[in-house]
Amino acid sequence: NAGVTQTPKFRILKIGQSMTLQCTQDMNHNYMYWYRQDPGMGLKLIYYSVGAGITDKGEVPNGYNVSRSTTEDFPLRLELAAPSQTSVYFCATLITDTQYFGPGTRLTVL
Amino acid sequence: AQSVAQPEDQVNVAEGNPLTVKCTYSVSGNPYLFWYVQYPNRGLQFLLKYITGDNLVKGSYGFEAEFNKSQTSFHLKKPSALVSDSALYFCAVRESGSGNTGKLIFGQGTTLQVKP
Question: Do A101 and B43 touch (CB under 8 A)?
Answer without folding.
Answer: yes
